Each structure stands twice: as structure tokens, then as C-alpha cells.
């Protein structure tokens, strides 16, 4: 297992470039998760958290480690400062209930999917985690798109593949793809074919925007 690290300076540069993109690029019609400067800054904090998980070789997708998955969402929505955590305490508590307490949904549904598909190749596994996060019922109350990018990045980098970093070039296609996934219901048997197609499309997108500059190899990471 590679457990490669993220190239955070390159990721920061890509997020800064995305933040500077014309509003016509970022304001995709129908988007329920607009990309703002603050949102991109907190997304950068999320990549730092994913990098820390990789550095610790944290088995994030095993039973008993789900708090790390929840923390990914807290970071992209609430940041890391104690002041913001106090300000959004009610939202954080409600997100935890949403994450843990819904029968057949939330983290229980994600772990059940992972158990069924654990032998998939890394690219397909990352795509499946993305689809499971953003499709209905969504894994979190808000911020599912950004959280899905981070969770997919963890899966990819752990396997030695570049993380999912959506650049200005790929952002319009990413938003269309995320919106198409968000209307699917991963609890419905009648959606199985559509979900399979969504995973294939996300896999293709991951391959298309894969960029080795966003990854540090295991040897390079050892000296960080």
C-alpha cells in the first residue's frame, strides 16, 4: 500500500487559481453548493486534514474510525478555529445525528457499500465513495460535494494515485457530474443501473483530471 502524501503547495495554488476564475465558471446553473473564496480556503484545510490522515496511515474506512470521515465535513463547512466550532456548535451536533442515527443511511450505508465493494480497483472505489457521498440520501447535511472530493482523494492517494483536485479547467464538468449524481437514490433497487453508470462516469472524470503534481510519492513524503 502506497500511503502517498498530498502536495499541499500545488493544491493550494490550484485552489487559488480556481478562486480567481471568472464567476461565469463558478456559478454553474442549478448548483446548490456554490464555490466561494471562504469555501475554497476551508477546502484547503480539508486537504491538509486528509494529508495528516495519510501521514498517520489512518484506516479511515474501518469500523470505529468514522469520526475522521465526519471531521472532513466539519473542516470544509466550519473550519478549524475554536471560535468557528463554537459558532457552529448546533450545526455540528445536527450533522453528527444525521451522520450516525439514520437507519439505512449515513455512515452505516457507506460502510455497507464499502464492505460489498472493498475489492474494487482504487479508481473505481474512489468514484464509488464519491457517488455514495453526494447521491441521496446524502452523507452529510451540507458540503457533500467538497467532502466527496476529499474522501475520494484519500482513497486515491492511499493507493498511490493523484488526489481529486478540481481545477478551473475541469470545474464546469465537475459541477455537472456532481449534480447528476445528487439526484440519484443509492437506497433504491431501481437506481442500481443508474448508480453503476454514475460510478463509471466519475471514474472517467477522475482519470481525465488526474494530475501527478498534486501527489508526493512515498519516498518524498518520508522526508516531510
Give the structure's gist in a few sentences:
The protein has 224 residues and is mainly alpha-helical. It has helices spanning 8-19, 23-26, 37-56, 66-78, 82-87, 89-100, 106-117, 122-134, 144-158, 171-182, 192-209, 218-221, and strands at 5-6, 215-216. The protein has a two-stranded antiparallel ribbon.
Mean pLDDT over the residues? 92
Strand residues, percent? under 5%
CATH architectural category: Orthogonal Bundle
Our Rg estimate from Cα atoms comes to 16 Å
Question: How are the elements arranged and paired?
Answer:
Layout (H helix, E strand, L loop, with lengths): L4 E2 L1 H12 L3 H4 L10 H20 L9 H13 L3 H6 L1 H12 L5 H12 L4 H13 L9 H15 L12 H12 L9 H18 L5 E2 L1 H4 L3
Antiparallel strand pairs: 1-2
Helix pairs in contact: 1-3, 3-4, 3-9, 4-9, 7-8, 8-9, 8-11, 10-11
What would you note in describing this structure?
- The chain is built from 12 helices and 2 strands; from the N terminus they run βαααααααααααβα.
- The chain has 224 residues and is an all-alpha fold.
- It has a two-stranded antiparallel sheet.
Question: Which characteristics define this entry?
Answer:
two-stranded antiparallel ribbon; Fic-like fold; 2 strands; globular; disordered C terminus; mainly alpha; 12 helices; 224 residues
Amino acid at each position: 500500500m502506497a500511503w502517498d502524501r498530498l502536495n499541499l503547495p500545488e493544491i493550494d495554488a490550484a485552489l487559488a487559481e480556481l478562486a480567481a476564475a471568472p464567476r461565469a465558471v463558478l456559478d454553474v446553473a442549478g448548483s446548490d453548493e456554490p464555490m466561494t473564496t471562504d469555501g475554497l480556503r476551508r477546502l484547503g484545510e480539508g486537504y491538509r486534514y486528509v494529508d495528516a490522515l495519510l501521514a498517520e496511515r489512518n484506516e479511515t474506512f474501518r469500523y470505529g474510525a468514522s469520526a475522521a470521515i465526519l471531521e472532513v465535513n466539519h473542516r470544509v463547512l466550519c473550519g478549524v478555529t475554536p471560535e468557528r466550532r463554537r459558532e457552529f456548535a448546533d450545526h455540528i451536533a445536527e450533522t453528527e445525528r444525521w451522520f450516525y442515527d439514520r437507519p439505512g443511511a449515513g455512515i452505516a450505508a457507506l460502510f455497507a457499500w464499502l464492505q460489498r465493494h472493498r475489492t474494487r480497483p482504487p479508481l473505481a472505489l474512489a468514484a464509488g465513495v464519491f457517488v455514495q457521498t453526494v447521491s441521496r440520501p446524502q452523507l452529510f447535511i451540507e458540503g457533500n460535494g467538497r467532502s466527496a472530493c476529499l474522501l475520494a482523494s484519500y482513497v486515491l492517494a492511499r493507493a498511490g494515485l493523484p488526489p481529486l483536485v478540481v481545477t478551473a479547467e475541469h470545474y464546469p464538468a465537475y459541477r455537472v457530474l456532481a449534480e447528476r449524481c445528487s439526484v440519484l437514490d443509492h437506497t433504491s433497487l431501481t437506481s442500481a443501473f443508474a448508480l453503476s453508470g454514475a460510478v463509471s462516469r466519475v471514474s472517467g472524470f477522475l482519470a481525465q483530471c488526474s494530475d501527478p503534481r498534486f501527489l508526493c510519492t512515498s519516498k518524498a513524503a518520508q522526508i516531510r
